[in-house]
Design brief:
The chain has 2 domains: 325 residues, 2,3-Dihydroxybiphenyl 1,2-Dioxygenase, domain 1 (Roll); 68 residues, no CATH class. The protein starts with a helix and ends with a strand. By secondary structure, the protein is an alpha/beta fold. The strands form 5 sheets. The protein has a 5-stranded mixed beta sheet with strand order 2-3-4-1-6. Bound molecules: 2-oxoadipic acid (OOG) and nickel (II) ion. The site of 2-oxoadipic acid has 9 residues, from strand 1, strand 4 and helix 18. Keywords: Dioxygenase, Iron, Oxidoreductase.
């Protein structure tokens, strides 16, 4: 391949195409997903026009609820896949790197009784996130938590599975070697990659094996019974999840009863999610007894929507976890149920941007106000002595936006998981599993980034740019 072609390599553009291709495929596979996208687009259009009307009526102030207009909203998605072996995980890492998606965070799912651990593959740089923020929550089966009998069965099945076509493996190698691919090769890479995530309605195991896997844990059957790592949901981001939920119910879409994550707030934090229930799909299995293919069913794929808010600091996350568990405890004797308990416990989570920032609960991106911009024009003549962030905000030289949370909330995921899959007897044993990040990273072939450090760096860089523009020697953090 010529160098000139390699230089046209654009991971962000490729990621956007990959996400769009997956979305088109999933619309064909799960028509309700297409309906959901329509509802989200409709709701978001209404929200944007309402907020614009409101802004025109009132003068904009610092503490105003921020909002992002499309296009990021229009295209934003996350997906989820489940993998069986270290080889599958390493290869997925190599493939996603071509799309500029890197492993961030370690998620232990034994806390919810699943023999899984996970990471999120996503862009990490601000510019890349702005171009296209696609992310894929990727779980790996923990064979160490399975009973010996099922571990042997799963081991055999997965050692024969070929999740990636030979051509895909070849293209991944070419991309790595040449730091790029020619245009025709990128088309091929995308179509070969899609095959890895496609749904297959013929199982690779017999009906007896399927039932044994499912008795161990439904998720084990989902991972080990099929030839692909079918994408199990693809989630659009909305500006108003309560409204989408309401609209889904009105249109008869079988949505979940409640929204996971923080309660409704003025200043959105982290992630709120809801889903419509998993589809029961017809699957063909081979039956040894009948020496023929028979019809069965499998439940795995579902629809989900999310609303993203500000990324919280470690301190902010601790407060979130604390209030959430208080709500769980309270809900046991609260007649309003869990949502009532949640609203009441979250009274103790500040709900205005200035306070969230000054208390160190959220990450923010600093920017100059128009006054700050003016001053930056004469930065050379200005007083350069140290100032604090809060002084600069008070003097209306500095402003900020909350940084969007780009990651996942395992507790939210837990609600989704358990609403879709039936409980089973071995679940308690799986709950006793300990997180095993070291082994996960060994299987991945690299370490996962710490999401808190990534947000911290974004905040620090933004403040540094403002410091330089204002001609100050230092800006102290309050
Ligand atoms: C993982 C689900 C996690 C989310 O939004 O928290 C997830 C799975 O179903 O395999 O996608
Ligand atoms: Ni999800």
């Amino acid at each position: 391949m010529a160098d000139a072609q390699a230089s046209s390599w654009d991971r962000d553009a490729l990621r956007a195409r990959f996400c769009l291709a997956l979305s088109d495929m999933y619309k064909q596979e799960v028509p309700l997903y297409a309906d959901l996208i329509e509802i989200v687009n409709e709701v978001d259009d209404n929200v944007v026009s309402d907020r614009l009307a409101h802004l025109n009526g009132a003068s904009s102030s610092l503490a105003e609820a921020p909002y992002e207009l499309p296009p990021r909203h229009r295209v934003e998605r996350h997906g989820a896949i489940r993998l069986g072996t270290p080889y599958e995980l390493t290869t997925i890492r190599r493939l996603f790197a071509i799309f500029g998606m890197y492993p961030v965070g370690y998620y232990d799912l034994t806390v919810v009784g699943f023999p899984l651990h996970a990471t999120a593959f996503r862009p990490v740089e601000t510019a890349a996130l702005n171009k296209h923020p696609f992310r894929v929550f990727t779980t790996l089966l923990r064979q160490d938590l399975l009973s010996e009998e099922i571990r042997n069965l799963v081991g055999g099945i997965l050692s024969r599975r070929k999740l990636f076509t030979d051509r895909l493996l070849e293209l991944i190698e070419t991309a790595e070697r040449n730091h790029g691919l020619a245009a025709a090769e990128t088309d091929e890479l995308l179509s070969e990659a899609l095959k890895t995530f496609k749904w297959h309605s013929a199982a690779t195991v017999t009906i007896d094996e399927y039932n044994r896997l499912k008795a161990e844990h439904p998720i084990v059957a989902d991972i080990a019974s099929f030839p692909s790592a079918h994408i199990n949901h693809l989630t659009p981001r909305t500006l108003d999840i309560d409204l989408v939920q309401k609209t889904m119910v009105e249109r008869g879409i079988p949505s979940k009863e409640r929204i996971e994550g923080p309660p409704p707030r003025t200043c959105e934090i982290l992630l709120r999610q809801t889903s419509f229930k998993a589809l029961e799909e017809r699957v063909r299995f081979y039956s040894d007894q009948q020496s023929s293919w028979i019809d069965g069913s499998h439940t795995a794929r579902f629809g989900e929507i999310e609303q993203r808010g500000a990324a919280v600091t470690r301190k902010g996350r601790e407060l979130y976890d604390k209030l959430l568990s208080e709500a769980y405890r309270q809900a046991q004797n609260d007649s309003d149920g869990f949502d009532g308990a949640l609203r009441s416990s979250f009274q103790n989570y500040p709900d205005n941007w200035l306070q969230l920032r000054s208390e160190g609960l959220i990450f923010v991106r600093y920017k100059l106000t128009s006054r700050g911009e003016e001053r930056s024009g004469h930065a050379k003549d200005a007083d350069s002595s140290p100032r604090s962030v809060s002084e600069l905000i008070r003097d209306r030289l500095l402003d900020f936006d909350p940084i969007t949370y780009e990651d996942f909330l395992p507790v939210s995921a837990a609600g989704i998981f358990t609403s879709n899959l039936k409980k089973d007897t071995r679940e308690t044993a799986m709950r006793q599993g300990k997180p095993d990040r070291e082994n996960f990273e060994r299987n991945l072939g690299t370490t996962v980034s710490d999401e808190f450090l990534l947000y911290e760096e974004m905040e620090r860089n933004s403040l540094e740019e403002c410091r330089i523009a204002l001609g100050l020697d230092t800006i102290t953090k309050d």
